[in-house]
Amino acid sequence: MQLADFERVRHSPAHRTFRLDRIRALLRRLGDPHLSVPTLHVTGTNGKGSTSAMLSSLLEAHGLRVGLYTSPHLLRVTERIRHGLDPIEPAAFAGLVDAVWGPLRQVARDTPFGEPTTVEALTAMALLDFRRAGVDAQVIEVGLGGELDSTNVVKPSVCAITNISFDHVAVLGPTIESIARAKAGIIKRGVPVVLAPQMEGALEVVLGAAARQHAPVTQVGGGVRWSVDAAAGDHQRLLVETPRGRYRVDLPLAGDYQGENAAVAVAAGEIFLGERLDPQAVLRGLAAVRWPGRLERMRWRGVQVIVDGAHSPYAMQRMVGALAGRVDPERTVAVVGALAGHDLVETLQPLRRLTGRAYAVRSHHPRAEAASAVAAALRQEGFAVLGGGNDIAAVAGAAADGIGADRRPQTVIATGSLSVVAEVIACVRGVPVETYPTIRGRSTDRAARPASR
């Protein structure tokens, strides 16, 4: 049995006809693990991974055992299933593959729903692992959209919706309202919702969905506010104010938008914890959060390297806003790649504020755009394309060292997709990075472990 993997190929509009019957049938054969653990469900377009990590760290600081499920992974597929912020071990991941493989085959054979997908298998693995581990809470990040996502079988105690912007329009629809309707599909009757600031069209859709479900809404920018007291490097000091308290947060993540994510996490954590809330534990949890690849700074070959997985126009605008005035455009060069299906030209437009020079690369992600296509988009936006190719380590090295008559840069920015970021991080740290593995049971692959390159 070969599981369909829509992270390897473009989703088609037919994805809109997907239903949750198949994942429910799979989980039923595993004893419905998704119903046994109190859940925080997180969706949005931007910041949902960071917000999920903050929630996990915040809850763990309260002494809770926490399961965290996110996607995609950065360096290793095991990062998708975590206890707290720590990925499970490869052997445990392999054991979960074995545990779900029989039920996967049963669903494919005995139901009218067809073969499960890779994402459905991973979702089932995470939920099964969290029940086995006896976690006190699970933070579940939506993979794509919300209403039809495989995670939308959970019965949450709190739903959180981060910023919604344009992405995956072939699947979710071409308007901000259609995308918001998909995201709002996670809202359940009577379940509290924490909502980040939104465009007007998205806000109207989500508030309407919440009203129909009689779900109370806490809005960041309304009853919950945040501001940046100070920022330096990868840290910033925030003030988050809610009706329940004031939190002076030391957050080890850069970018003012992370303050918005932190406010969502604090508000959702307050609701989930109720009387168990400890304001000092909130501060400890946020101070301990780790979420690599998002405005992360490193030193390599004497040059500052900044990596950020911005892959949409809005995400790129936020990244550029965080760095504008903090890097010298004359001494900065970009390493840029992208996945097929994204609006590359529009995404690149804001980047011109930071530099006019770039390298075009193709990562090892199965859906990565060809370096030549990235170079064409860069030139269309007025960038001088200095080179590029498929060997990101070599290209990143050339970018850091400078070429020809160009002065050695002070800063290299790697961006456009998390897969590009992952390969640059792996190069700088000298660690391996996985390609997107095919998941197989031991009956067809005795190793049952993801392949590395």
Describe what this molecule looks like in 3D.
There is one protein chain. The protein is an alpha/beta fold and 453 residues long. It has 2 domains: 13-287, 3-Layer(aba) Sandwich (UDP-N-acetylmuramoyl-L-alanine:D-glutamate ligase), CATH 3.40.1190; 296-429, Mur ligase, C-terminal domain (Protein-Tyrosine Phosphatase, Chain A, Alpha-Beta Complex), CATH 3.90.190.20. Helices cover 35% and strands 18% of the residues. It has helices spanning 21-29, 48-61, 90-110, 118-133, 169-172, 176-183, 200-212, 257-273, 279-287, 313-323, 344-348, 371-380, 392-401, 418-429, and strands spanning 39-43, 66-69, 81-83, 86-87, 137-141, 158-161, 193-195, 217-219, 225-232, 235-242, 245-251, 296-300, 303-307, 332-336, 357-361, 384-389, 411-415. Strands 4-3-2-5-1-6-7-8 form an 8-stranded mixed sheet. Strands 12-13-17-14-15-16 form a 6-stranded mixed sheet. A hairpin with a 2-residue loop joins β9 and β10 (235-242). α1 (21-29) crosses α3 (90-110), α1 (21-29) runs parallel beside α4 (118-133) and α2 (48-61) crosses α8 (257-273). The chain is globular, with a radius of gyration of 21 Å. The two termini are 24 Å apart.
